[in-house]
Amino acid sequence: MRGGANPDYYYGMRYIGERSTDPGLLVLASLAGGPKHGYAITTDVEELAGVRLGPGTLYGALARLEERGLIESLPAEDRRRPYRLTAAGATALSEQLRAMERIARSGLARLRVAGATR
Amino acid sequence: MTRRAARFTINLYPLAFRRRYGDELSALLDQTPVGVHTLFDLLLGALDAHLRPYEGLTGALSVGERLRASASGVLACWVVFAAAGFGFAKATEDPPYSAAGDSHGLLAAAHVGVEVLAVVASLAVAAGALPLILAALGHARRDRRVRGPVALPVLAVAVYAGLTALIALIARSQSAQHAPHGTTGAHLAGIAWALAGAACGTVCVLASRRALFAIPASGKRLLCALVTGTVVTVAMVAIALTAAAYAIALQVDAPRLAASPNGPFGFASTNLAFAAQLIVMLVTGSLATLTTYRGWRALVREPAT
Description:
The complex is a heterodimer of chains A (118) and B (305). With 118 residues, chain A is mainly alpha-helical. Helix content of chain A is 64%, strand content 5%.
């Protein structure tokens, strides 16, 4: 399924597709490994992409993703609340990563060709 | 210190956002290193949350809370706006500006327009605040927790009025002794007075907001605050536009006067001071418009009971 007629999916795709280092995409990629709370997402994203998300950026992204139905919160543990991907979030992330993979593959191939003709 | 500042910054987020994510944000701040970049990140996050509100959080506030947030938001904007307006009044009070107004109709009309609108806005602030102040005073008699937020603005205004009277007395005695104007001492006193004014305004806004959320207020009083807040907002926008017309007219009709060093403490030209004041007026006017709009939107969606 590629989102079908689900508007959340397309808005989500547009939102997370703006930049490859978009906080929304990084958060979705982190949550692909399982539910996490804010601090765990921050450290995971730092390991994954070398990007340290500030607390304002992180919670801005979490709020937007939750608003679009791409993630959902689980019951709070103390003051921390874990989040997990929804089915729409997993689809949106998968599509976005595939698109990035295609771009990376063809970009690298073009670089190889350009290198050979130089 | 930075961590405390970061925690305070969470208060700058919209109430609905704080209610949903505030505890989590605070827990995250307890676990992560906090630096100046964190403060900056939180400030940008708060600005983004105000300018692009999260639709998913609209149900997080009741209509009463939304109206309270709008009323205190307009008050905060008005306090900052009034400071800029005071700067405008001080910059244009000297005789050369009156003389320029006498010979150029638009200048005089714009100046009078700003004054009339400022009086209208001040009366509207008083009309909207008075019923809520009375409700807060009545509630403070029964609830000890509300006494602090109710007493703080009164105390802050009293201290500020005392400081103003003291500075005015010193200035008068200096004037009587024919001391030269514009000395370093006078400038320092002026800066201290301005900073005290900013502190007084901040205390008034924060304490009144706390009191407003702590007291039960009837729908009528909140509706009155929203209506008067709307009047204040319209007046703020109109003052900003009229002040802009004055600044343009002064530049066209009296360019020398516009370029003269008549800004705060003589540090800046009248033009530069006008530019800074207009930016503050337009920003606060826009924020007041936004919060007033949200109040009306909440009321239209679910009328207050």
